[in-house]
C-alpha cells in the first residue's frame, strides 16, 4: 500500500494522513479500543471529514464496507474521536484509546447491516490493536458506551457476539427479552440505586441517586445496544438486569482465577 506521512501500524492498511491529532496526555497510554460508525451518507464523505482540518475530528482507522482499511493517525498519537466521554473515571478517552471508524451511514440514513467482509477486517484490526496494546476485553467499547447521552454508534446491529467468538471484547449471551418486573424513567428508590451502582461498577457514567432520570435512561439504552440488542428501549427489564449481573459475574470469576 502507498504510505503517506507515516508508516502503517497495521499490515495492509493504506495510510491517508489526517491533520487532526496530537500527543497523548502525559503519563497516559493506550488501554481501550473504541468502535464507531461513520454516520454519514457516503464512505468517501466520511474519509474527507476525518481528514478535514476544519472538522477537528479524526480516528486512527477507517474500515470500508468492502474490508479496506485506511489508517489516518499513528497509533502512538492522540486522535480526536471520543469527544466528551467517560469510562471508569477516565474523561480523556482520546489519550488512552485507539479509535476505529466503521463505514455505515447509521441510524439517520437507514442503518443497514454491516457486511461480512467489513466485519472480518474489523476483527483482524481489533485483534492487532488488543494484542499490541494489551487491551483487556471489557475495554473494547462502543462510542455509545462512553457517551450515552450523545451517541448511538456503532449501534444494535453491530455484531459484538461475532467479535467475542473471535476472541475480541467482553460478552455473555443476553437473557431473552420478555415480561416481568422492570424499572423505567421516573421510578425512584433502592432498586434504581442498585441498578445505577451496577452500571457504574461496569464503567458507565451514571449518577447513583436512586432516580431513574434521563441520564440513567440513556445509559440503560447504551448498555442494551451493546449487550442486549434485541430490544433497545431504555427500560431496565429483567433481561437487561440479568445480562448486566452476568457480565459483572464473569469479570469477577476471571479476576478471581487470574
Task: Produce a short descriptive summary.
By secondary structure, the protein is of the alpha/beta class.
Task: Reconstruct the topology from this structure.
Elements: E1 14-15, E2 21-22, E3 32-37, H1 43-50, E4 61-63, E5 69-71, E6 78-79, E7 97-102, H2 116-133, E8 140-142, H3 143-146, H4 160-165, E9 182-183, H5 190-202, H6 214-227, E10 236-237, H7 238-257
Helix pairs in contact: 5-7
Q: How many E-type strands? A: 10
* Number of helical stretches of at least 4 residues: 7
Fraction of residues in helices?
25-40%
Strand content: 5-15%
The shape is globular
Spatial strand arrangement across the major sheet: 1-5-4-7-3-8
Q: Return the average pLDDT rounded to an integer.
A: 95
Question: Distance between the terminal alpha carbons, to the nearest Å?
Answer: 40 Å
Q: Structural class given helices, strands, pairing? A: alpha/beta
Give the helices and strands as they follow along the chain.
Answer: EEEHEEEEHEHHEHHEH
Are there runs of 5+ residues with pLDDT below 50, and where?
none
Radius of gyration: 18 Å
Largest sheet: 6 strands, mixed
